Amino acid sequence: MSGHEPLTLCPPANIKFGLKASPEAVDFGDIYYSTDGGAEETRTVFHKACGLPERWNTNDSFTIGELGFGTGLNFLETLRLWTDSGFLNSGKTLHFVSIEKFPLDKEQLWKALKPWPGDLSLKMQLCKNWPGRVKGFHRLHFDNVTLTLIHDDVLPALSSVRGKIDAWFLDGFSPSKNPHMWSAEVMSEVVRLSKPGARLGTFTVARAVRDALETAGFTATKKAGFGRKRDRLEAVYPGDLQDLPSAPIKPVIIGGGIAGACLAKAFETRGIKSVIIDPDDDTAASGNPAAIIKPRLDLQDRPESRFFLSSYFYALARYQSLGCVMENTIIHACRDDKEKARYEKLLAQGVLPAGHFGKADNDHEYSFPEAIIIDPALAILNSTAGAKRVSGRAARAENGNVYDEAGRVLAEGSHVFWTCGYGIRSLVRFEALNLRYSRGQISFADITLNYAKTYGGYAIPFGPESLIGATHKRLDDISPFKPRREDDLENIEKFNLAFGAAPILSKRKSRSSVRVTTPSTLPLIFGDGPEWGLTGLGSRGFVFAPLLTEALAAEICGEILPVSKRLWTRFRAREKPNSETRPKRPLIKT
Ligand SMILES: Cc1cc2nc3c(=O)[nH]c(=O)nc-3n(C[C@H](O)[C@H](O)[C@H](O)COP(=O)(O)OP(=O)(O)OC[C@H]3O[C@@H](n4cnc5c(N)ncnc54)[C@H](O)[C@@H]3O)c2cc1C
Ligand SMILES: C[S@@+](CC[C@H](N)C(=O)[O-])C[C@H]1O[C@@H](n2cnc3c(N)ncnc32)[C@H](O)[C@@H]1O
Question: What's the pLDDT at 581?
Answer without folding.
Answer: 61
